[in-house]
Each structure stands twice: as structure tokens, then as C-alpha cells.
Design goal:
The chain has 119 residues and is an alpha+beta fold. Helix content is 46%, strand content 12%. The longest helix is centred in the last third of the chain and has 18 residues, at 101-118. The protein is elongated. Bound molecules: zinc ion.
């Protein structure tokens, strides 16, 4: 038998405890890392809009100039999910300016777009 430790999708810490279950019966987990912005997560989401990788793609597409409905169609999620994720990611980066992957991406990506638009 092989045991695989549960990892937090945000900080990749293995200091994770079980935190009850969803209404569907899926196990919920809680990250114990105090610096981590994320607390509750699931290993397998039913809803594509909740998957961390999809949420990162939403932000990436917005920074590359994709519209809300464009992003929703490509990632097969609802336009309202795209708006909700974009609003949340901005609130995240203003709360902790030097933590999290999305804020470091913003710093790298913004000057490139501004440069291209200027010409
Ligand atoms: Zn974490």
C-alpha cells in the first residue's frame, strides 16, 4: 500500500487536516500553514470554476486581453464565474502585495502589455 500525503494547492504544504465533508460526500481538507491564503480545499472539484489551475488561467487570459465571455467559452465555465474570480484575485493582491503567485505574475506581465499598446 502506498500513502500519498495531501498537499495544499496554494502553498504545497503537507500540513493538512481533514475538515468535514461536502454535501456530496467528498472529503474537505484544511491547510494548517498560517501564512497560506487558502484554508479549505478539495482534492477533486466537480466544478471547473473552483479548480486552482483554471482560476489561474482566468487571470492569465485577462492579462493577455481576453474578454470575460471569451475566457468563459475557452475554459468552459460561466461568464459570472470569470467575473467573480477576477474580482477576488484583485482583492487578494491588494491585501498581500508581496505574497502569492498571481501578484508576481501581474508584475511581470503588465509592463509588456503597456509597451505593446504604446507603439
Ligand atoms: Zn496552504
Amino acid at each position: 500500500m502506498v500513502t500519498i500525503p495531501v498537499q495544499c494547492p496554494h502553498c504545497h504544504s503537507t500540513e493538512v487536516i481533514k475538515a468535514g465533508k461536502q454535501a456530496t460526500g467528498a472529503q474537505r481538507y484544511q491547510c494548517q500553514n498560517r501564512q497560506c491564503a487558502r484554508r479549505i480545499f478539495l482534492l477533486q472539484y466537480q466544478d471547473r470554476g473552483r479548480v486552482p489551475e483554471v482560476r489561474r488561467q482566468i487571470v492569465d487570459m485577462a492579462l493577455n486581453g481576453s474578454g470575460v465571455r471569451d475566457t468563459a467559452r475557452v475554459l468552459r465555465i460561466s461568464p459570472t464565474t470569470v467575473i467573480a474570480v477576477l474580482k477576488k484575485s484583485r482583492r487578494h493582491s491588494t491585501r498581500q502585495p508581496h505574497a502569492g503567485a498571481s501578484s508576481s505574475f501581474t508584475r511581470r506581465a503588465r509592463p509588456a502589455t503597456a509597451h505593446r499598446r504604446a507603439r
